[in-house]
């Protein structure tokens, strides 16, 4: 009996069968029936219907092609048309004739074009050379046996800033070559469909741009929202079309000649001195800015930039929290607090200025995780009535060459502008600063190392000319560059002592007696952050059970906060050996 007949009579072949088995059935039938759709409907109608339903109504031939690609993908990183034709025992030309079916599967992100062969759609001239693969996102969906496949990242946004935050992962996947040009455009258009209530979307759609121009203008708008008014055009083009040098050169020539669609529609313009060089810059026109930010594009960018890279926390919004430190550390922290009180700070700055000494105050708080470094910074802001500018380290990194350095400088420029406009000196906080203040790399290292060195040189210069207050926290002082040591006026080590642990236990777990707290502190020398985790677990227990946990349960919580290396060796979370 033919194998296909065995499949047909398999009792497990119903709608409750895992989808991956239905895919396997179609891939096996492909060995016998090739492109004969009627045979698949006759031999495995349930499998055909189940796969179509999972992918939201793709055609039967698309179900068959996907099943073959999925099966072959387990043997190779990618699958080309010749591989598919060999399995289905038909000519490559017949598979070639199904190019629109493959394009639709790619646009739906059911299959993707292999990175090494991905090209811009205008440069696709050799379809048989294109190779396909199944994305890890889809494989995970099949592994979890989900009922439908949702490939789109499209989300509804509240405003234009929210819109570009939603578009950011789509751009990043494109630049990282996770998705090709067709997939990227499809995701952007799907996102636009969900956000027609935003005027920018409706106006940009009405402008009738081709897909290439749409991607470019969105990249420029994204950079403008990030605070970059002038952008290096060739770097944007090379980032958006990394595998198509011919198209890159063609686009740059069009811009230099002033004939590109975005220039013709008055959405993008080169600077007056812009020319065919790697440093030529372009900017959004007044028309594009009015479309992007119709009410306040003249100043909204800076405001949004501050809220994205520097989250401003008003001192009045910070709730009081009691912290426990040993006497030596508390004395150092009291000194810092006294110095930053408005009257004392003004007197100090006047004295430093009189003797021509640097007026900036940089403070480094270092120690193990959970010892209170970050919370001290918040409480310092509250006590001294100074707003806190929290730097989002991740937002200082950019996929475009040279942009990370510009963002770092922008942080300090914005901080200085805030001081000059409000006459209020807030606190600039770099939390977990070792990622940007780390040891500089050797000369001649990779390009990414050169970028890191450039960022650190900018930071060294900014620390040197600082006229304000900087707080930095870190768990790893060993990673800090030695050049930063003298830039910090105060270096405060945050440690954990037995008596402090007892106080923290009694404050967080009031049901404990002093004797129980001392016993736990001796047996489990945890940090305040870890004890706070235990306190939250006790609250959860009370919510679920209606009672407070007893001492045995609390001990169990303490045990859970410790990682066991072996039966007799334990390492506390976050501790470095």
Low-confidence stretches: 1-13, 116-127, 273-279, 297-309, 565-577
What is the overall shape?
Answer: globular
- State the fourth-level CATH superfamily of the largest domain: P-loop containing nucleotide triphosphate hydrolases
CATH architecture of the largest domain: 3-Layer(aba) Sandwich
- Tally the beta strands: 14
If strands are numbered along the chain, what order do they take across the biggest sheet? 7-9-10-11-8-12
Which class best fits the helix and strand makeup?
alpha/beta
What value does the average pLDDT take?
Answer: 80
Rg over CA atoms, rounded to whole Å, is 30 Å
Please identify the oligomeric state. single chain
**Main β sheet profile:** 6 strands, mixed
| Number of helical regions | 27
User: How many discrete structural domains?
Assistant: 4
CATH level 3 topology of the largest domain = Rossmann fold
What is the helix content? 40-55%
Distance between the termini: 66 Å
Proportion of beta-strand residues: 5-15%
CATH class of the largest domain: Alpha Beta
How is this structure best described in words?
By secondary structure, this protein is of the alpha/beta class. The protein folds into 4 domains: 3-143, Arc Repressor Mutant, subunit A (Orthogonal Bundle); 160-298, no CATH class; 310-494, 3-Layer(aba) Sandwich (Rossmann fold), CATH 3.40.50; 498-572, no CATH class. Helix content is 52%, strand content 9%. The protein contains 27 helices and 14 strands. The chain has a 6-stranded mixed beta sheet with strand order 7-9-10-11-8-12. A 3-stranded antiparallel beta sheet has the order 1-3-2. A 3-stranded antiparallel beta sheet has the order 4-6-5. Strand 10, helix 23 and strand 11 form a beta-alpha-beta unit. Helix 2 packs across helix 5, helix 10 (160-175) runs antiparallel to helix 11 (181-193) and helix 22 (403-422) packs parallel to helix 23. 31% of the residues are buried. Residues 1-13, 116-127, 273-279, 297-309 and 565-577 have low confidence and may be disordered.
